[in-house]
Amino acid sequence: MKWVSLFLAFAFSAPSRAYLRFGCATLSVQRLDPIVEPGKIPSAHVHQIVGGNYFNATIDPKIDVGEKASCTTCSFSEDFSNYWTAVLYFRARNGSYKRVPQYPNALLGSLTGGMTIYYIQESFNSNGKQKMTTFKPGFRMVAGSPANNKAGNKGLTYTCLKDVMTRFPETAEFPKEPCPAGIMANHHFPACWDGKNLDSPNHQDHMFDTGKGGFSVAGSCPASHPVRVPQVAFETMWNTTQFNDKSLWPEDGSQPFVWSHDDRKGYGTHSDYLFGWKGDALQRAMDSSALVSTGLKTQSVALSNKCAVQSSVKEEIDGWMDISHYRFIGSGGLEVSDATEIFGQ
Ligand SMILES: *[C@@H]1O[C@H](CO)[C@@H](O)[C@H](O)[C@H]1NC(C)=O
Ligand SMILES: *[C@@H]1O[C@H](CO)[C@@H](O)[C@H](O)[C@H]1NC(C)=O
Ligand SMILES: *[C@@H]1O[C@H](CO)[C@@H](O)[C@H](O)[C@H]1NC(C)=O
């Protein structure tokens, strides 16, 4: 039965190989960013990271992470990739901030926090006939940018969860009203690769987004980026329940959630991917005519939850953090430096 819980394909009469979908528990929550700010300890803002335990301030593109990591928080035990996003905070009336907890996809078992990861072949409901070329060791990419301050990132959206199964509608900015089951952040990466570069200076130009939006057929890849790769997507469930009482929200009625890069609208939502599947496991899965019989190895929830990486940054990120007083007011966190750094740009 473990297989069944990893795939949604079984629930539909639709094709047997639409996509890989699986959960990854939280690996670490800290200020590191080996793609955008390699070597910098701490990086500008807090991230929540899932995947393999080779995660560090620097991950040399010449290194095959799939060979180096020794455990992963993902249900597929050969997936040592790292997946990360910014962290969501609640902003109280008195100017204090508190980290919003994450919870796992209800369909995927009792992982601790983390995210749901997809590798989509053609679209959410179809598998197409195209050959999917999977990523090479060292490959990395970023979708979205913390500097963005307007709508228009098609695959980067939010879902206001009425219950854990709500999937529509999606919005480009944070929901304006309390969401009973929390906020789901959706991150879809582009699916066309230039076929040559493992990375690019802005971590985006080696990829091309056909602009069709999340989970839809990606469309043909242009000559500049001719190689069709699986569309990687993340879903992160932020449990806002404890903050849903509107009397806690700002007096002007605005919504109180803010990304760790100090973004209150949500347009700066972004996500990072660093490939790390072992050997050709992902390619074999994508080539298989039925994902459920690819032979991909899985591991127990207990093993996924056990894998972790200690923070390289000595600071408290939980408790109520008082930005205006430039210090943390959480319990035991007073070693911490300047709270404005947590909310870096
Ligand atoms: C991260 O790199 C440091 C050296 O910069 C090393 O001491 C540490 O063990 C590494 N951590 C992991 C999880 O590989
Ligand atoms: C700020 O507001 C939060 C939420 O109401 C509360 O828990 C916290 O104690 C307050 N902090 C201060 C310094 O008053
Ligand atoms: C969300 O948070 C609330 C309040 O802290 C908690 O009771 C509930 O179990 C959490 N929901 C999930 C799905 O983790």
TrEMBL record:
Domain of life: Eukaryota
Signal peptide: 1-18
Annotated InterPro entries: DUF1996
Assigned keywords, A-Z: Signal
Keyword Transcription regulation: no
Protein name (Swiss-Prot/TrEMBL): DUF1996 domain-containing protein
Domain DUF1996 as annotated: residue spans: 33-277
Keyword Transport: no
